[in-house]
What does this fold into?
Amino acid sequence: MGIELAGGPAKEPGLLLDVRGLTKVFGSLIACNHVDLQIAKGEIHALLGENGAGKSTLVKMLFGTLAPNAGEILWNGKQVRIGSPGEARRLGIGMVFQHFSLFEALTAAENIALSLDSTTPISAIAAKAKELSQSYGLPLDPGSLVGDLSVGERQRIEIIRCLLQEPDLIILDEPTSVLTPQEADKLFETLERLRGEGKSILYISHRLEEVQRICDRATVLRHGKVVAHCNPRQETAGSLARMMVGGDVHEVHREHPDHVEGAPLIEIRNLSQAPKGPFSMPLKDISLTVRAGEVVGIAGVAGNGQGEFFDAVSGEAVQADPATVRIRSIDAGTLGITGRRLLGAGFVPEERLGHGAVPGMKLSDNMLLARHRSDAKAFLGGGALGFIRRDAIEATTKRVVEEMDVRKSAEDPEASALSGGNLQKFIIGRELDRKPSVLVVNQPTWGVDAGAAARIRQALIDLTRSGSAVIVISQDLDELFEIADRIAVMAHGEMSQTIPIQGATREKIGLLMGGADTGAH
Amino acid sequence: MLESILLTIATASTPLLIAAIGELVVERSGVLNLGVEGMMLMGAVIGFGVALTTGNPWLGVLAGIVAGAAFSILFAFLALTLATNQVATGLALTLLGVGASGMIGEAFVGQPGVKLTPIYIPGLTDLPFGRLLFGQDPMFYISLVLVAGVSWFLFRTRAGLTLRSVGDSHTSAHALGIKVIRIRYAAVAFGGACAGLAGAQMSLVYTSQWIENMTAGRGWIALALVVFASWRPTRVLLGAYLFGAITIAQLHVQALSPNDIAVGAGPLWFLSEGGRWLLSVLKSVPAQFLSALPYLATVVVLVLISRNRRLTLINTPACLGRPFVPDR
Amino acid sequence: MRLELAKRPQHSKLFSALSPFIAFVLTVIAGAVLFALLGKSPGAALYAYFITPLTDLWSLHELAIKAAPLILIGVGLAVCYLSNNWNIGAEGQFVMGAVVGAMLPILYPGLQQSPLALPVMLLMGALGGAAYAAIPAFLKARFNTNEILTSLMLVYVAQLFLDWLVRGPWRDPAAMNFPQAPRFTGYAVLPELLPASGRANIGILFALVAAVLLWVLLTRTKKGFEIRVIGMSPRAGRFAGFSTRGAIFFSFLLSGALAGLAGISEVSGAIGRLQPSISPGYGFAAIIVAFLGRLNPLGIVAAGVVLALTYLGGEVAQIEVGVSDKVVRAFQGLLLFFVLACDTLIHYRIRFVPSERPAAVLPEAKSDA
It folds into this structure.
């Protein structure tokens, strides 16, 4: 199988980067535990691992934003200490961030200039950036404001910015998570060309298919430790997944019915909305009906109006015409989120901390947050005075915690003290516990570990089996193919017609994500 | 007559301009320091005291700058190093500044001050309206240089770009290796120095005496000016002079006689008649109402500017007022 | 040495309780240093500030008089600050409450003989303060105008308005040329609690009742929950279906009403008439009270007493030790500074780390560049 056991890396000549025993401790958490990593010149090296496995921490140490507690880094065979991103860049390490490190209020050229230590005038940088972008086939207008650009365009700025530093090693953190499949293909071409030029690439991902496609070698992290060094092409997706997760991944069980005959539980008719802020999307004439017993997935690259759509459906943004949104055949367009909840709808927003939950409040308070009206009889007393009945709320919280297997360190901890996966399980459980007729979920498993993600997906499917309608908005196509009965795609604030899962292919969906044929309906 | 009115407008506008341009730099770096009023008072009292004891107004100016900057570092330590709530901390700085300046200045109350004299260039100053251009106090020229300098710094230099980037996204800046906290300390200190200078202008040029709470809300008006100006230096200049004019207008209404209007209007009969009528109306308004004008004007201006929500959102530094704690 | 913050997973209950006390001790220490620098005996000065006012019954009455407006305003501000609405114009709302409440005895002096006079005056005072606070609230809710600046600007306007009233239309003709309105009489005067031993009036009872009611509201009811959610996370508040605008009006009107009530109580009680200046900065000191009380109404009662003590102590220290009464304001500002600094301990652990090594120690890092 070609797996070298962790802990005893052989010394090889021609190594560009040789990391030995790198360790980082945050309080009681060992984020990186004696990590070894070797990258040769001219190779694309994958760093695999689940959310929370320590990939980001390792990369931050390589790029100088975090200082390791122990271990050493050898660069071209010489020991180095990377104290800042500036030093990393001077060594020849470039970085393309997952959550872009861009400035929305500045132009593309200014953004690029900020990461170059030189004092080259901005106009010269703009010219150079343009030249480089053309030679790599990554079109870019240096004078445009980043805030106005799509995520794909933003990533191009990150890549160009990185290439302008002429690095020997380029680190890419989950680069395809914001791209359409076609855009990802283009990125892979660029990466292969860079490898051809003798550059090394550290490619961080949890998408096994990509890693097998373009990476020469892989290092797998789990719970902060290296569990394997391997050649991904000699592995199967299953074996790689087992290394990452440390066991078999729970498969979601479902059978897709040929067609759903249930009653329409949520109907959206000709929903249009002007952009709310300088950098936000309009919604253009969206119509969608979801029936009892089905999951409809909404695919799309981040920032194409999914957030605005969620707000409009949830009632955080209300509509002028009551018939625009109908829940269980009742006009709800002018109702706020509370009114829509009372009609039997439940909502799970994308942002867990600060939207779905108040970070500094206890879980029981966060239980009250979404259910103070729907469960007013149980949770509140004293009539208009609205006295809070803590015992009832705490009992419900306990029930949800047990039902969804939420792991926590204290009896009733603050939301911010939970890991992403556990908090997400709680937030979804909070809605499922109400047995909603309609559930709208935005990015259900974003940043969630595989175990929690599987549990969440299964719970959504189980909800439809009991006769509810579910809308899942997700950037993760694999997820949608796994759980959706129909898929629609959002691009530039428009939504395509839904495609039954039986007739959907990644290519078809990908083209729609790129904005082709959006006016299908 | 007109010339002397314009001169007093310049003198009244200068402290607003200096304080606001300093706060503009602070806010561009993503920090909201509501302590301008307190820093101005500290600059005013220390500047006055040093000028009084040394007899040298320039030493007073320097002391005012140092006092403002030093005082602002207190704010920076809490708001930046300890990541406290910036609104509350700025309020604390103002409350402390009001109290401390009153305490320090007790001995100076009623003392004749040392005045920073206007410049005089033979020939040029004596030209008609020459005093406006060539005969003002040095602070007037310093304030204009500050506006030009800040404008150049922010939009023409790499350091200015870095400062703006920190105000736009401190997480991105940190990821690129920009020293967010260090840059913000520098910006806050610059803002403090400007506020101190503005205070010194008030106690060494504008009134040339120390009166407790003499800034009378100018620090707050300066804060409003930054919003009014949509964080652009040249618009701060415009705003400061608008408010200076309102301040002086209400003072002059009480001192003017109808005859002054006739002289000022010269041969323009309708101006003179209109002016006389306006003056008689204004003179019937109680003095307190006129004194309230700058404050009411601030409210009105803030409402007008904030009505355009989109514009405000685009121009406001995205990280304004948000504490930053890097993970290590 | 460099100071670093490490976020605690949960806020520290220990430091939530301790931080105001640490802040107070630090302020006292700073005060001792300050007095020493001024050439006064720190012991004597601190004794005059914090002990002497507590040693006789008369000054305990005075303490109640000063604590009442501080607590009343402070608990209202706590609701504002918890909901992230920065009303810093309580001083103006205090003045307008006094002015509106005083309309009855001044414009209709005859009504002062009716037992209904006082309740009506108090109600009018509360309404006056609330109405004045409604201005920044409306501007924030409707136009998104910065409430910090508008509420503060309106303080100056209110003070000038009061100045005009007592020098102009409301001046007492019998007071020679003194700028003051006629003295309140009969039922327009706030009753004293224990007239035999001092002049404390029922204002302190208003303060205590308000504090208890708001404590119940904030900790036990949905409305209080709503206030805290919106303050901590406005987006989550919208998700919960809470109205941000509603919270703006609720908190401003409530705090304005309490400040107005404090204002009318002050002029109908301790002062007895309108005059150009009716507050030694209660509206601003109450900001300190709110934070020292950690925005908890019961904590604010204690904090109000502490701040009242600094006012009284300032007077004592001026007479007995010869320290200027101007020191009081500086003292109060310092206290808020320490309170805010100590609150950092609630959410962060503070670590001292050695300064970063200069980059020059690492020649290897450079050689490859």
